[in-house]
Design goal:
Layout lengths: L15 H25 L8 H21 L10 H9 L3 H18 L4 H22 L5 H12 L30
Helix pairs in contact: 1-2, 1-5, 2-4, 2-5, 4-5
Length: 182
């Protein structure tokens, strides 16, 4: 079962800690989601069918996330490695949309249950981490200053490059545009 070393081209600009945060949150969160789904299934005893369906969905979503993030936990199922490899080749925004889509239905079915918020919330947070990974790194301060100067001078059009509008390590500036004193 190959795993952490299998990187594809789109992951070059993502910090190592964010990659492991996404994988770790998905793995641990899916176990928690399965356990919280079992707790939601106790809605059967209170005749709350929507919470029962939300619990079943949550357990299924937790299993799917485990299959995608940690196939070593499901090595006894034949097709797990194939599915995991297929998910690993997808762009980060696909994973983010998939995990957020898996996490939302239990909220609509059983909104007031704490186990729904906790279990599906962690799968949702995994999708958010993958969404942040899809955005990539921030642009440098020099790139942003150059872009702003070009726009103010009227020499160019705003760029639609995905990483052209974020600034890293910017010094605080007052309303007048002057740096704030320390």
């Amino acid at each position: 079962m190959s795993r952490p070393g299998g990187d594809n081209v789109q992951k070059d600009d993502v910090p190592w800690w964010m990659r492991y945060a996404g994988r770790g949150l998905g793995t641990v969160g899916s176990f928690i989601a399965i356990f919280a789904g079992i707790i939601n299934c106790t809605g059967l005893f209170t005749l709350n069918v929507s919470c029962l369906i939300a619990g079943i969905w949550q357990m299924l979503a937790g299993f799917i996330v485990i299959v995608c993030e940690a196939p070593c936990c499901c090595f006894f199922i034949d097709y797990v490695q194939v599915l995991s490899d297929k998910m690993e080749t997808r762009p980060y925004w696909n994973k983010a949309a998939f995990y957020v889509g898996l996490a939302l239905p239990p909220f609509f079915l059983c909104f007031l249950s704490l186990s729904t918020w906790f279990g599906s919330g962690i799968i949702f947070a995994t999708g958010v981490v993958y969404g942040m990974m899809a955005l990539g790194r921030k642009a440098s301060v020099e790139e942003m200053r150059t872009s702003a100067a070009t726009l103010e001078a009227g020499l160019g059009q705003p760029t639609t490059a995905p990483r052209a509008n974020l600034v890293a390590n910017e010094q605080p500036v007052s309303f007048t545009g002057l740096p704030l004193p320390n």
